[in-house]
Amino acid sequence: MRRLLCLLIAALVVALGVGSTLSPAGAAAGPSAPWVSGQSVTGGAVTVSLDWDYAGPGRYEVLVSSAGPDVYPGDAVAKRVPAGPTHADVPGLAPGTTYCFAVTLNDNGGERTCKVTPPATRAVKPTALATTAATFNLACGSKSTCNSGWKWKKRQKRVVDSIGLMNADVMVFAEAHLAHKYGKKKRWIGKVMKKRGYTLACQTQKSKKRKLFSQTAYVRSGVYAVVDPKHNSKGSRFTRFGDRDHGYCHALVQHRATGKLVALGALHLRDGNADGVRQQETAYVLGRLQARFAGVPTVLLGDFNSHRGHERRGQVDAPRLVLEGAGFADASDIAARLTYPFLNSAHGFDTNPPRSSTWPTHVDRIFVSPGITVPSWENIAVLDGGRYAAPMASDHNPVRTTLYIP
Fold it and tell me: Considering the domain boundaries, does residue 10 fall inside one?
C-alpha cells in the first residue's frame, strides 16, 4: 500500500510540474545532454544551435543558465526557449560568456552541457587564406604502445585511412616515432605523406643518433612552402619534457597563393595529474613562438593532455589559461560549426564511444592566435552502428579545423 501511495504522489508531482526542472532525478527519463552544433556572432550577440537525442513525443524546452556548472542543480534559469524534438536555436547570448543548457520533455529535465560563447572578435570572417589543419595522436611511441589495443600491423592501415579522412593542408602527428619506421614499409608515415604530396615542416626527436620522431608537422606542398626547411626539420629538443613521447617543434611556412607567412607549432604535453608541469611547458612553448614568430599568425596543434573538464576534478586547464593570456583561442570554443563535440577525442581504444556531458573533454586541441577565425571544427569519429569501427586506428580520434587566417 505504501509503495502504491509513493507511486501516486510521484505521478502527481510530474503532472503538476512540482519540483526543480533542473533536478538530475528526471534525467533517466528525459532527453540526453544537448551538444552545441553551431554558434554565430551577429551584431554583438551570439546564437547557439543545440542538438540532442530524441526522447519521445511531447513538449520540449531548453533551459539556459549563466551560472557555473558546478552548482547544478541549484542555479537559476535565465532563459527558457521552446524547442523541437531534437534541435533548438538559442539567440541573444552574450559573447565570451559561459552558459549551461538543459533540455526538458514535458518539464522533465535531463543532463546539461556547458559552453563558452565566442568573443565578438572571433566572429567568422572569410579571408583569402582559408586553410585546413588537423592533429592526430598515433599511439606509436614505442613497440609496447604501438601494440596496445590492437597490434600495429592491424591498425596501421586504419591510421593511413584516417590520414585520408583528415585531408588537411596542415597535419600534426603526436606519438609518431615508430610510425615512421615500423610495420609495413609502404605505410610508414613519412612515405605515406610524401606520396600524398606533403612536405615535412618540423619534427622532434630523442637524439641526433636516434631519429625517433615524437611530434611531426607536415604541410601540403601545393599549398605551403616551408621557409628555412633545414632549420625547421631539426625541430627543438626540450629536456624539460623528459621523454621522447612529449616534446615540441615549430616551423614557418608560406602560403603559395597569397604569399602570407604562417607559424606552426606541434606539441605533446605531459599527461597525468601534472597541471604545474603543463603550465610550465606551455609557457615555454609560447615564449619560443613569440620570440621566433612575433606578429605572424600562429596555429598550435597537438595533444595537450588537458581540457576544460579538468576543472571539475580539482585540476585546472593550465595550457588554455596560458594561451588565452596571450590572445590565443581553442578552435573548438570559437568554431561556427562543430561535429561530434560530445565524443571525447581520446577514448582509450573503447569501442563504446565515451561521451562528455558538462564540458567537451578533448585533449587533442588546436589553438589559434588573435585574428584567426574558425568556420568549422570536427572530431573525426569512424562509427559503425553507434560504436567505433574495429580495429581502431588509435586511442585518439583526429581533430580537424577550417581556418580563416588574416
Answer: no
Note whether 135 and 33 are same-domain residues: no
CB 182 within 8 A of CB 146: yes
Instruction: Give yes or no: residues 91 and 214 share one domain.
Output: no
For the chain, what is the domain count?
2
| Residue numbers of the domain that contains 290 | 129-405
Q: Which three cell numbers stand for residue 292?
A: 621566433
- Comparing C-alpha atoms, which of 319, 167, 144 is closest to residue 248? 319
pLDDT digits (tens, 9 = 90+) for 305-353: 999 887 766 789 999 999 999 999 999 999 999 999 999 999 999 999 9
pLDDT tens per residue across span 356-370: 878 888 999 999 999
208: how many CB neighbours lie within 10 A of its CB? 8
Is 5 contained in some domain? Answer: no
Are the C-beta atoms of 404 and 373 separated by less than 8 Å? yes
Same domain, 221 and 76: no
Report the distance separating Cα 227 and Cα 296, nearest Å: 13
Same domain assignment for residues 314 and 188: yes
Tell whether 6 is covered by a domain. Answer: no
Q: Answer whether 0.85 is exceeded by the pTM.
A: yes
Q: Residues near 267 by Cβ (< 8 Å), separated by ≥ 6?
A: 174, 215, 247, 248, 249, 281, 285, 300, 301, 302, 303, 304
